[in-house]
Amino acid sequence: MKIAVIGGTGLIGSQVVKLLGAAGHEAVPHSPSTGLDLLSGKGLAEALAGAAVVVNLTNSPTFDDASPAFFRTTMDNLLAAARDAGAGHAVILSNVGADQVPDLVYYRAKVLQEDILKAGPVPYSIVRATQFFEFVDAVLSWTADGNTVRLPPTPVQPMAAADVAQAVADVSGGAPLRGTRNVAGPEVFTLDELGRITLAARGDHRTVVTDPGAGMFAAVPGDALLAPDDAVIAKTTYREWLAR
Ligand SMILES: NC(=O)c1ccc[n+]([C@@H]2O[C@H](COP(=O)([O-])OP(=O)(O)OC[C@H]3O[C@@H](n4cnc5c(N)ncnc54)[C@H](OP(=O)(O)O)[C@@H]3O)[C@@H](O)[C@H]2O)c1
Fold first, then answer.
1. pLDDT digits over 191-210, tens only?
2. Displacement of CA 79 from its chain's centroid (Å)
3. How far apart are CA 186 and CA 153, in angstroms?
4. Residues 112 and 71: beta-carbon distance below 8 Å
5. Closest approach atom of ligand 1 to CA 13
6. Cβ 35 under 6 angstroms from ligand 1
7. Which of 61, 120, 135, 148 is deepest in the core (most CB within 10 A)?
8. Dihedral through CA 135, CA 22, CA 29, CA 83, nearest 10?
């Protein structure tokens, strides 16, 4: 099948393009660097011509109050173009527990993205993943100074981007789920514990201070980000990934 991968140059998108290609599909990456801007719609009709499946792996440039407008506009543009092109399947990547974290605007924006897709004219699939291992360094950097990293004890169940990409590729190559597939990592950590493991593995001597009010993930209630009962559990552990 011809599969258009919007955001196909990103962390997940670039791996999805390779996996779909290896599975025999004609997977074509699209992004601003290839001439497609999903916000303005520039290059979109050309990108989707002849595509049976459209996979949207773009991300908002910021996680703040601008993120709902990004996901609204890009999804509206994508679905109108996918309908016009006759695509039979639209896929997005969202976040496990997004609907359970109403105090975070980015998570509300991801739920908005899901809702637009569900209400749209194209048969759809949603893959919801937990936090990527590759995202941990960014999370640490938000609340770090020269000597300490402040992190809340929020429970998380992170996973390797490669495992996320495999899940997205599997769903994209199949029939529309008309629903959601949850995927998650094999282990639960608290975020402060994950920070300590990460710094120790890197020989970084900064101290992780447990601070229930630190950073974006302080707003997460209870076990909202952990795998729901129906989740597919990926194999790669955090320590295996760190050792690579
Ligand atoms: N981080 C996590 O832990 C996590 C967990 C679950 C789900 N997710 C979801 O996973 C998705 C993909 O994340 P990622 O980390 O792979 O993102 P990423 O590495 O930042 O890649 C984003 C991609 O989108 C493209 N893009 C950005 N703005 C665009 C626009 N206006 N038009 C067309 N393409 C545009 C980028 O192109 P350029 O490179 O040219 O800018 C890039 O190819 C996101 O939607 C995120 O919500 C993330």
1. 999 999 999 999 999 999 99
2. 19
3. 18
4. yes
5. 16
6. no
7. 120
8. -110
